[in-house]
Design a protein that fits this description.
Length: 255
């Protein structure tokens, strides 16, 4: 983005519940329907934003990201949402800022290496390094350090015997698969040893941002451990606290 260009940030959420919580924070709110998706534009703390529910899976999220870039002219995208924890040290409620983002279901072997994205020569897409540091500082200052976590979040995490949330930076993988099986998780972990968590959209949006040369940030909250308890853990997390987390994250980034 050159310095004369007006900054417009696209904010995509993985769950409609998360996006609904962000809408009341938008001033000068306008609503648009394009490609069977609802987009909300306006400002948060004087910064122009466009907010949308990404819809689930890689293709759906790519469509949403493309509309944001081509129609609304966003010049940065931030994706927030829930994810399944892969690394053993992650607990439900932890926050992960994405670094290298893989498409774990991309496999054109023997023509290409496993995970290689055709015509890019890349095994993963990198999130914007400057934004990683910036957003890490914002989140750790306002959430982790100041103990300003929403009380309902802390109460819920205590009720499911999870420790106080931690903030990490690390690798994330996306695929059109809800991972809820220990053996699938184990295989993924062996193939990508640096992996912290899995989800279903981030790497697709990372690819769109790579093609249009705009910075991308991915911030995920662990809703389940991508194992045999995932379906129940995930549903309970979404019902109880996912939207509170998104609201808190957006406040940390913008206010
Ligand atoms: N609730 C929806 C489906 C949501 S899909 C329905 O019932 O139709 C799951 C969402 O949570 C995706 O946005 C994905 O990115 C994220 N997610 C959370 N845990 C995950 C896991 N274990 N595996 C894959 N995606 C996960």
């Amino acid at each position: 983005m050159n310095s004369n260009q007006h900054r417009i940030i696209g904010i995509m959420g993985a769950m409609p519940e998360e996006v609904e919580e962000i809408i009341p924070m938008i001033q000068n709110l306008q609503k648009f329907e394009i490609g069977n998706r609802i987009f909300y534009s306006g400002t948060i703390n004087h910064i122009s934003v466009v907010v949308a529910f990404a819809k689930w899976g890689k293709v759906a999220a790519s469509i949403t990201a493309s509309v944001m870039i081509l129609h609304f002219k966003v010049n940065e995208i931030i994706f927030t949402g829930v994810a399944g924890g892969i690394a053993d040290h992650l607990n439900i409620g932890d926050i992960v800022i994405g670094k290298n983002i893989y498409q774990h279901d991309m496999d054109a072997r023997p023509l290409l290496q496993q995970f290689e994205i055709p015509l890019t020569g890349k095994l993963f897409f990198e999130c914007d390094a400057e934004k990683i540091n910036l957003y890490h500082n914002f989140i750790s200052n306002s959430i982790i350090n100041k103990i300003s976590f929403d009380k309902e979040i802390i109460d819920y995490l205590e009720s499911i015997k999870q420790p106080y949330p931690k903030l990490y930076i690390g690798d994330i993988a996306s695929g059109d698969q809800f991972i809820h099986d220990y053996s699938v998780k184990k295989t993924l972990k062996e193939k990508i040893p640096t992996l912290l968590c899995v989800e279903m959209e981030g790497a697709a949006v990372a690819q769109v941002c790579h093609e249009y040369k705009i910075p991308f940030s991915l911030i995920r909250i662990i809703s389940d451990n991508a194992n045999n308890d995932s379906i129940i853990d995930f549903q309970k997390f979404v019902e109880n606290i996912a939207s509170k987390y998104s609201c808190m994250l957006i406040q940390a980034l913008f206010l």
